[in-house]
Amino acid sequence: MNKKIEFFYVDAFTTETFGGNPAGVIPNAENLTDEEMQKIANELNLSETAFLLPPTNANANYKIRYFTPTKEVDFCGHATLGTAWLMANKYNWIDKDDKIVFESNIGLIPVKWLMENNQLTRVSMTQVSPQVKSIDISPAVVADLVGIQDTDIDDRYPIKIANTGVPHLMVPVKTRQAIDQAEPKLNELKKMNNHFNLSTTHLFTFDTNGQFDIYTRDFCPNIGIDEDPVTGAANGALGGYLYLENILAQQKRHQIMIGQGHTINRPGILYVTITPDGENAVIEVAGAAVVSIEGKIFV
């Protein structure tokens, strides 16, 4: 007999249906095999689908696993945020506690509710401590792979790998126009990302005309997605990179607004908070979400 599995599409980092970054969410995945989870993620055909299972850690409410259409990944920011938003609203977690805690492959991920006038306006996830490391690749090669001119690279800032759970290549670019016009060589970029064990390649600029603090695009062909619309993990890693590289003043708390997804008509907004913590920082990534589709899938 077929299993009927409830599923949701949740648009993360937006207040508008069909904006932001859509994630699949399977709230009750305890009876699914790994193979079935992978097939469901492929069928839903979103950048990531999150599956909730009973926790093995007593400090967590759920275990969360993430699948792209082609593989399991250790962490996904927008799917975490979308899942938390769904659980707060659809499954009444907002009445049970002031947060929900997910057990993931990278550790515990607490997500708290941000309220205004007794209404949930955003959810905010705390990512793991940021790390930054160098990469042996020339800016000209990176520019060629992401489809911009080498003169578009903003050489005031270093190209480095940043991580708040999974590694992303941070690529500073002088202008939003250059980012919007980027045409990556996806097959070659995939090989480079795999060679350096990168999850995504993340372009960013401070050139936003005051609309945001930072504007970004994110390419990730090596995990089965050409471009991720609005990327919680990569933008959290960006916050860590900006702090650890002293681009943002250290020992000060920062709140930055990041825009992403506009080039592919999935505009979204992320709010990244960077709080000093000794020699490192605590990174929180917040945003709103909208449930756009719900239904049942037969397995």
TrEMBL record:
Gene3D superfamilies noted in UniProt: Diaminopimelate Epimerase, Chain A, domain 1
Pfam family of this protein, just one?
A: PhzC-PhzF
The residues responsible for catalysis, as annotated, are 48
Q: Name one GO cellular component term.
A: cytoplasm
GO MF terms, alphabetically ordered: isomerase activity
Q: Which NCBIfam families match?
A: PhzF_family
Which PANTHER family does this entry report, sorted A to Z? PHENAZINE BIOSYNTHESIS PROTEIN
What is this protein identified as? PhzF family phenazine biosynthesis protein
Which species is listed as the source?
Answer: Lysinibacillus fusiformis
